[in-house]
Amino acid sequence: MKFFLHTYGCQMNVRDSEAVSAVLSAAGYVAAESEQDADLVIVNSCSVRAKAEDKALGKLGLLCASRRDHPGRLVGLMGCMAQRLGNEIFKRVPTLDFSVGTRRAGAIPRLVERVIAGERGISEFSDPNEVPDVPEAHTEDGGFSAFVTILLGCNRRCAYCIVPDVRGCEYSRPAREIVAEIAALTRHGVCEVTLLGQSVMNYGRMNPVWDDAIDPPSPGGYREPFARLLEAVAALPGILRVRFTSGHPSGCTAELVRAMSTIPQICHHLHLPVQSGSDRILKAMRRGYTREQYLDAVGRLRSAMPDFALTTDVIVGFPGETVEDFEQTRSLMDAAGFDNAFIFKYSPRPGTPAAAMEDDVSETEKMRRNQVLLSDQDLRGVRNNELLVGTVQQVLAEGRSLRNAKRWAGRSDGNKIVVFEPVPGIRAGAIVPVRITRAAPQTLYGEVVQ
Ligand code: SAH
Ligand code: SF4
Ligand code: F3S
């Protein structure tokens, strides 16, 4: 039986899909080249905004209807929307075969077996407090870069956010398990890892992650668990680059700044979602920092790393956001000097504290604010990238450029896409020095320094 996974949402879902692929392959199922070829299609869903759920629901509808041309095709759902809706999903998509919540991806082969045996409409959901069953990351050959979830769930409960409801409480995976998983990935050619967590710097705060009898603290004394994990991962043979996401200003401690600026494998890039530049809105959002604290964290990172790259997420149109609040966000974005920003229009999520507030910014106004921030960011992006013209960037070569097969593409330490002319002997998965000759808002162009 051939399977295909459709993945919506964040990198955590991408990672979970890879894990499910690995589990299904181990159980004897075969990955299909495309959805058309698949006898089993699983939609890995996201709940973060209403639009994300609409996409997954639309896809499920089409897949169920596709059984006309593909009789007996099995359709399953997993991920955040599965967890949020529970068995309610079978009212919305009556011919769905199975649904599996977060933290239960390991149960998928078992449910598939039952569906093959003739059961329909079956499900398994998790309790937010349960210790998750984390399937191994994929270890197929071919990729140089891998995501590894280190911290599941979230305890922060920002007023607008559904993630704590669907992903449960914070749980840090034991450090030894993470290190072993990454060591296994390096044996399959992975040289760059991105450590994932909703508030990734909280790693190790809620549950013990080190067994000190086996893993004594590094000589040199106390290390915060997250910084200590960064050291352990960076020290693995074959690991050239370590990234992590998402950050929170409260985690940008002196120890973290020290780790980032002194461990050579750690990229000088941070995704540090700010959400708003207005203290009033930040407070209503329950983000746990002020505008000044955010900018202070950025200042400390920049002064330790002159080549530091910074990206962010922003929500426009949170309940009560006035034009003045919005202008505060604009000015913060200028002051922080973001290299890239993802802008989202506020979407009320059922059961969150913000859903009880009036969604009082009109759709047109949300759209306008969204456009303003996007065009500000385009200008800022080109300006930041132009400053890199003439510099030499260390680029992890990924292979031929998608747009122009004569060229190669890769990513810089600061996570920017760099397109360059290949040189003889170039190899995907190697880090090459590239002198930047031209800058566009999202891309840098250059030549390999021989
Ligand atoms: N844990 C990450 C964010 C995860 S969700 C963090 O706190 O940094 C990814 C992004 O989606 C958020 O940063 C936020 O900008 C956006 N988002 C979350 N809930 C939203 C909502 N209800 N409406 C619009 N955007 C939302
Ligand atoms: Fe959501 Fe806030 Fe947790 Fe991020 S930190 S996942 S925005 S509750
Ligand atoms: Fe979406 Fe779940 Fe990620 S809600 S953003 S897929 S944690």
SSE blueprint:
Blueprint: E1 2-7, H1 11-26, E2 30-31, E3 40-45, H2 50-65, E4 74-79, H3 80-85, H4 89-92, E5 98-100, H5 108-116, E6 122-124, E7 145-149, E8 151-152, H6 163-167, E9 171-172, H7 175-187, E10 192-196, H8 225-234, E11 241-245, H9 254-262, E12 269-271, H10 279-285, H11 291-304, E13 309-316, H12 323-336, E14 340-345, H13 363-386, E15 392-400, E16 408-412, E17 417-421, E18 431-439, E19 443-448
Parallel strand pairs: 1-2, 1-3, 3-4, 4-5, 5-6, 7-10, 10-11, 12-13, 13-14, 17-19
Antiparallel strand pairs: 8-9, 15-16, 15-18, 16-17, 18-19
Helix pairs in contact: 12-13
What does this structure look like?
The chain has 13 helices and 19 strands. The relative contact order is 0.08. The strands form five sheets. It has a six-stranded parallel sheet with strand order 2-1-3-4-5-6, sandwiched between helices. Helix 12 runs parallel beside helix 13 (about 365-385). It has about 450 residues and is α/β, with parallel strands linked by helices. The structure holds S-adenosyl-L-homocysteine (SAH), iron/sulfur cluster and FE3-S4 cluster. FE3-S4 cluster (F3S) binds next to helix 1 and helix 6.
